[in-house]
Amino acid sequence: MSLNYGKCLYTPKTQRRRKHEVPLLTHGPSFERVGVPGVLSPDAYQTAWTQYQQFLVDKLNRLTAQTKEENTPTKDLVLQYARDPNHAALFNYASAAHNNHIFFTTMAPESINVPRPLLAQIDASFSSLASLRSHFLATADSMFGPGYVWLVKRNQYTMNESMKLSILATYNAGSPYPGAHFRLQPLDMNTANTGVTADMSPTAYARMMKGEDGTYPNDERLRPYATGMGTGNPNAPSAVNKGTAGSFGQYSNAGQNPSQRRAPGGALVELLLVVSTWEHVWLRDYGFGGKRKFLEAWWDKIDWEAVYARSGFGKEKR
Q1: Which residue of 30, 94, 117, 249 is most buried, as measured by CB atoms within 10 A?
Q2: Rounded Cα–Cα distance for residues 139 and 135 (Å)
């Protein structure tokens, strides 16, 4: 039997409406009757999707009523308010609604084989599907607290051009979109010896990062701090300019041009797959200590056709 899985994907077109609404899922009628077979019972599905998504939508409607944002897609709200602390609640509800939607659109009532072009990319990035499964579930299981674990497609590569897929985690309602602070950081700052110490001032840090040729290969914006120009006082204990952080800092929405909405070092990623580690999703069916069992059951019901459609990888015959 041939099923059309493409309809479940998030697109701006499906989000253009007079107000925020709970989107329809391709497998929604089936999930409403029997839950997600082998993963979520009907009651758990009602909690994790129907009730929770409605709660998020209701909050969005209250926050955006009679404003220009009442017709704005959730993804656009996430990108617009990710760095605006004055609209933290709006960002949180929009991001949670967007993340939860992707979570449920990439589940199916039965097991789906991974399309060959996508499988080839998984092999190139993780060596095998089994290796991806092991790393992905271990990441999700080790998360302490609620959040999401993502399989993302990177649109820029730093070490291996063939490794186009990555796993990353976001906590609470965090978003991995490049406009919402996912940073491309090649070093593990918990284990790498970078020479940076906790009591180091920005001035000392900037001078340490100065290259032999007098330039700043990582960020030329460090130059004023290394010369003391950042504060007008070369002996200042902190050379951070007033207003570089907070509501109106240079990295906030208010401090950036529209063309600079991506945070410095932000990696360009596309979201392919996500699992929610929020307790309300799995606690009802699996109980305390049951998250790993839930994750293993979820993996078996991933809609890989939907993931493939989101990836944009070649559509050659399989």
Answers
A1: 94
A2: 6
